[in-house]
């Protein structure tokens, strides 16, 4: 069963239902601060009563289904709500913080995120890039002072980084943020990969149950990770990669952004070099360089 967020949180059930309803039906309709300030129930009450009631019923049913699946909804006001995600509302970008996060795992989200880094890159990565991601994931995740490696878990760089962190002897938890509903991962390839992450870390999504992956949800997940983690490292990314948008959002949020140089002739790292040229990221050459930047944040 999922942890009962309402049992340990000042957020009452009606408020939780309202947050979930707004996240399903009206994401971005009102500024985040307006909703949290006035309360989600007040914003939902602005709708015609029959519409508001149907949306409450849908949200309540989704919460019940989530509980049966071992998934919990985390909303503003919960003890587990990651307060740093609110930075997304204050950097003059169009996309603000989500109103609800869905989570599955053994830990508490603030604990998992306390020392965390977004380690990401291309899905169509080179063998060299995947090997580097595994090595960096291992080095960062190992030991009592290890860092939580966080990313989308997609094939290529992201999965390699998570797999590297998973083989560390004294490993930190891992975090995978999915761009679709958490109920859908069992239908994907590699369900055992996601089960392993949930067993020792967390699966998280800002997408309601049943929601499909899309370019906007993938970008939203990357930006949420950029806000929730302390720094971003791009291992390999071509010019058109969404990773570049995530790295730029991290820089806007004043998080350090690091990239590996790759080969001058390698298109899969062309995005890395672009981030350096435009002043978004600094170059690093290995795990010690990354660790040195992270040490300055502690």
Automatic annotation (TrEMBL):
The Smf/DprA SLOG domain, residue ranges: 74-291
Gene3D superfamilies, A to Z: 3.40.50.450
Top-rank lineage group of the source organism: Bacteria
Pfam families the record matches: DNA_processg_A
Matches recorded under InterPro entries: DprA, DrpA_SLOG
Biological process, per Gene Ontology: DNA-mediated transformation
Record-stated family: Belongs to the DprA/Smf family.
Protein name from the UniProt record: Smf/DprA SLOG domain-containing protein
